[in-house]
Design brief:
single chain, about 350 residues, Beta-Lactamase, 3 domains, 5-stranded antiparallel sheet, about 20% strand, phosphoprotein, ATP binding, transmembrane helix, transferase, EC 2.7.13.3
Length: about 350
């Protein structure tokens, strides 16, 4: 039994050729452009996040440096080095009034006792505070973010050593400040609709957050925030999973020991790429639909006359010679085939006639 060989008909071959001719260049071009576009987008997002972090860090460092210089200059005044409250208090009050975000400036002796105050309240013991202990242990600057009992909000304590003319440590001067300016910088930082900044203290407690709905309590512990564990996020924006969405995060350690995090939803950051990819997919689908349409129309135009000629050739083989031969007026290969079949039909008819005459004799 003769096996039937598998083969493609004219329509299938035409469709395959058109698809290959149209889609290979289109898909290749899309792949190359998409790869370059994604690389460019990666660089743009990285530069944007790093630039945002640079701007915030510059602002925080400038604010912090200004306060350090103020404390340092005041700490060198003779009345301050005297470590006498009656001499220190007028200076402390003037310093607090000069810096509106400051609500308390005080001095602490080497034994931890409070000596001078800008608010005239009763003296307290501060020897157990970390910023005091840092200075007493030889640190140049003492820092601590804490929840102020006065305002009920996160406050920043900056401490400097008070030294005598001999360089010997005489005590500590500390300024307690609202973090209004720093918080405003963080809150005002926006990247699109979802991008924001987060500032954490040295213990990963929230100083300020660009999205208030994410913070339930003052100085909330963010040690479990996914970005904290992403080492790579210190080099370039790195994604982490937040529920059912991906988030890009970039973090930086500030000189104060604080951690700055800039983050944005992945889908928003790459929205232009996703739009381009969707448009490319639509273009490919439209191209495929057009190719099918063209192949169908052209295939019909090719196969219909061939099928007609095939039917006629079959009828001729059965001795049906009184047939009208179509397509003979065409000037292409199909017309030539029609003429050939017509001549073949005439030849076969003549041969049949000769055979009949010989048989009759």
């Amino acid at each position: 039994m003769k096996k039937t060989k598998f083969g493609l008909n004219i329509f299938q071959k035409l469709l395959l050729v058109l698809l290959l001719v149209s889609l290979i260049p289109l898909v290749s071009l899309w792949y190359i452009n998409a790869k370059q576009a994604r690389s460019d987008m990666d660089n743009y997002i990285s530069q944007t996040m790093i630039s945002t972090a640079d701007t915030i860090e510059m602002g925080v460092n400038a604010w912090d440096s200004m306060n350090i210089r103020a404390l340092r200059q005041v700490s060198r005044i003779d009345d301050m080095t005297s470590m006498q409250a009656e001499k220190q208090n007028p200076i402390l009050k003037a310093l607090t009034e000069t810096y509106e975000y400051s609500f308390l400036t005080l001095t602490i002796g080497l034994n931890g006792d409070n000596i001078g105050r800008s608010d005239d309240k009763s003296q307290n013991y501060y020897g157990d505070r970390s910023y005091v202990q840092a200075i007493l242990k030889g640190a140049k600057i003492g820092r601590e973010v804490l929840l102020s009992k006065t305002t009920g909000k996160p406050s920043y304590v900056l401490a400097e050593p008070i030294r005598k003319n001999t360089g010997e440590l005489a005590g500590v001067i500390a300024m307690v400040m609202n973090l209004t300016d720093v918080s405003k910088t963080i809150v005002d930082t926006k990247l699109g609709e979802t991008g924001h900044a987060i500032l954490l203290d040295q213990h990963n407690k929230v100083i300020a957050h660009g999205r208030a709905d994410k913070v339930k309590t003052a100085l909330q512990d963010f040690s479990n925030h996914p970005a904290i564990a992403l080492d790579e996020a210190s080099v370039k924006p790195t994604s982490y999973k937040d529920g059912d969405k991906n988030v890009l995060a970039f973090k930086r350690k500030l000189p104060q020991g604080w951690t700055l995090i800039v983050e944005q939803d992945y889908d928003e950051a790459y929205s232009s790429i996703k739009k381009m990819e969707a448009e490319a997919r639509n273009l490919i689908l439209i191209t495929i639909a057009l190719v099918f349409g063209i192949a169908f129309v052209v295939g019909k135009q090719l196969t219909r006359p061939i099928n007609e000629l095939t039917t006629i050739a079959s009828e001729l083989s059965r001795g049906q010679f009184d047939l009208e031969m179509p397509q003979t007026q065409r000037g292409d290969e199909i017309g030539a085939l029609a003429l050939a079949i017509e001549r073949m039909g005439i030849s076969v008819k003549m041969a049949m006639d000769r055979l009949r005459k010989k048989s009759a004799e």
